[in-house]
Design a protein that fits this description.
The chain has a domain at 143-210. The protein has helices at 2-10, 13-29, 33-52, 60-76, 80-97, 103-118, 122-137, 144-160, 164-181, 186-209. It is mostly helical. Helix content is 82%, strand content 0%.
């Protein structure tokens, strides 16, 4: 607790948030999810406040990580409904206060999509992932790893629906981002797309024969 008390006295928000997050993690490791959540909520609020104050050392990615911690703790506590309510509340709040293509909205939509996916509501999850893609397409500050993960999810869901052309189009978007960012997974993506082209060609050939 000493690090947190020092950070609180000096009002240094990043240090305070980090200390609070560490305390939350300790409680999570002890399976005390309710207490962990109380600290993760505080960490989220501090990062949100720091962003409002335009502090350069805090990014939108910090809030997304906080959101992941909150949802993960609710999931471990078998209470995803509360996770959904929190994310939906934040989304409603964000839509009133920041531009519609702000990356924060994209991250929150992404987390709601994840929750629907956990519930097994794949179509609803896909609906949110498509919204995330739309937001990130118009955002200049999106963290590309999250965007790639979202696009891969959309592609996989499209393939599950046997919508191969749309699925490939999203994987090609992944490829384009990886080229621009020198992503280490670029070679793997080329191989995956090549394999999919071969598979879909075979499927289409059989469809014509049938």
């Amino acid at each position: 607790m000493e690090a947190y008390e020092i950070a609180e006295r000096t009002e240094h928000l990043p240090d305070m948030a980090s200390s609070i997050g560490d305390i939350g993690l300790l409680h999570e490791n002890q399976l005390d999810y309710n207490t962990a959540l109380s600290y993760y909520y505080k960490q989220y609020d501090i990062h949100e406040k720091a962003l409002e104050l335009d502090q350069d050392f805090i990014t939108e990615q910090h809030l997304f990580i906080d959101l992941i911690l909150i949802v993960k703790s609710y999931k471990k506590n078998d209470n995803l409904k509360m996770a959904f309510r929190f994310c939906q509340h934040k989304l409603d709040q964000q839509k009133r206060t920041i531009p519609e293509n702000h990356p924060r909205i994209g991250y929150t939509l992404n987390m709601i999509g994840n929750i629907y996916f956990y519930f097994g509501k794949v179509d609803k999850a896909l609906e949110y992932y498509l919204q995330v893609s739309e937001v990130f397409d118009h955002s200049q500050t999106c963290e590309h790893v999250t965007m790639i993960t979202c696009l891969r999810m959309i592609g996989a869901m499209m393939f599950d629906k046997e919508n191969y052309d749309d699925g490939l189009s999203y994987l090609l978007k992944v490829l384009d981002i990886e080229k621009k960012t020198d992503d280490p997974n670029l070679a793997s993506s080329y191989k995956s797309i090549g394999d999919i082209y071969c598979k879909t060609k075979i499927i289409k050939k059989h469809s014509i024969i049938i």
